[in-house]
Each structure stands twice: as C-alpha cells, then as structure tokens.
Amino acid sequence: MAFIQIIEAQAADIDRLQALDREWQSATEGKRTARRVIITQDRNNPGRHLIFVFFDSYDSAMDNSKLPETQEFAEKFASAADSMSFHDLDVLDDRDL
Hints:
With 97 residues, the chain is α+β, with helices and mostly antiparallel strands. The protein has three helices and four strands. The chain has one domain: Alpha-Beta Plaits, CATH 3.30.70.100. It has helices at 14-27, 58-66, 68-80, and strands spanning 3-10, 36-42, 45-55, 83-90.
C-alpha cells in the first residue's frame, strides 16, 4: 500500500529548508526510498509549509527514515524550522480525474 508522509513546518526561511532538502537529496542518491516530494506554502499563512513525501509503502518510508543521512537531515531541518509535525497516511485510493 502506498504511503505519504506530510511534514507540516512553520518557518520564516523556506530557502534554508529547501537547501537542506537538496543536500539530503544529493547525499541519498541511489539509496533513498522516497519517490516524490512536493513542497508547498500556505497562501493565507506564508510561514506555514506542507511537505508531501511519497513512498511505495510504510515499510519503505521506515527504511528511508533509518538512513544516517535522513537522521542528520531531520536534525538540521528541525533546528531550521520554528515548529514541525508529521502526518503519516496510508493511501487508500489514488486516481487521476
């Protein structure tokens, strides 16, 4: 079953968060299990960002979380954000309309 993790972050400096994301992407080339990422900004609250990370399954997401590079990224990301929370979602239906 496909899996999506949503990271909700409050941060004034989205450029810093995106730079950290690019560093992580480079460091995990060939070993990460994340398949896609979408970074958004709340139009009504510009400091609020939702990051959607897509995985093949919950297990592949957990494998990705165990990577040392992901652990390091998470620490840096948390220190660069004012606050953050995670939402773990199993995909029940996925279709194009």
